[in-house]
């Protein structure tokens, strides 16, 4: 049983002793300084919560423990984030699951793959929202020669989440070309000739054919081809005249002979495995007789304007006419070493099939 103090309105026990949980500080002179100090500290912590903006390059945001620790921001959001992080650490330690660091090996291998694909350290740091210096420290040894051995799980997860296919590259960086080749082949399979595609890409047909056989392409080329593919994959090629219809049919036949798949054959044109190999007749080399005649006649067609087969044919024809290496190089705007190398390769062998042959016309696309 308890009763109420007439002076303070606080309950007391039956024997007249004050209940300590209900007694104000005035009743406890020995504890009064400590209680007053604690009350003042609590009041100041509420009033003096200073909000500070980030002054680092790490892009700290309010409402995070990083801003609380690094920027010494004491706004309610940062304080709450720091409290939540501290409680999480305490719980994990109590459960025996506290592992603040993990091995850095898989992360370092992923960084190596990203850099090999053309992503720079600054771009990786931006995508993962970590500092550039931290990425450099993970990607290469420190000044003393010892590489970083551990990394926080959250940082590792952000770095490992970067996908090479989703990341942007520098325009001139080299990347793998399977997706680019497949897109060009798919457009050819629908009837778009290499010449039409080259015109839309503002490229020479011979240059585009080299792209279709190259293991790597520049990021700019990949982006241009991807944009063209999105534009033309659902549009039929020009077929308003008899000549255009014939060109479409021949282009499709040539693509089918090479086993090239149309756009609808791919679920993921970048990642799907290659289809089973199609056994077909050996491909014929494309020879543009007009370009060859102009090059042989010295009519402004240079060495770089010709495909590999056309170059061999021109060098062989000019050699058969008794032209010297110096004369051929000057006429084709190239070097004597290049002409000499082509002479050794061809050995003046018989020329490949001509475009004037109806059986070979339009079987003109390179094999990937």
Mean pLDDT: 76
Give the biggest sheet. Answer: 2 strands, antiparallel
Distance between the termini: 96 Å
Summarize the amount of helix as a percent range.
40-55%
What's the tally of helices?
Answer: 16
Question: How does this structure look, described?
Answer:
This protein is mainly alpha-helical and 368 residues long. Among the domains are: 65-95; 102-160, no CATH class; 174-210 and 217-255, no CATH class; 289-346, no CATH class. It is built from 16 helices and 6 strands. The strands form 3 sheets. It has a two-stranded antiparallel sheet with strand order 1-2. A two-stranded antiparallel sheet has the order 3-4. Helix 8 (178-189) packs parallel to helix 11, helix 9 packs across helix 10 (205-211) and helix 13 crosses helix 14.
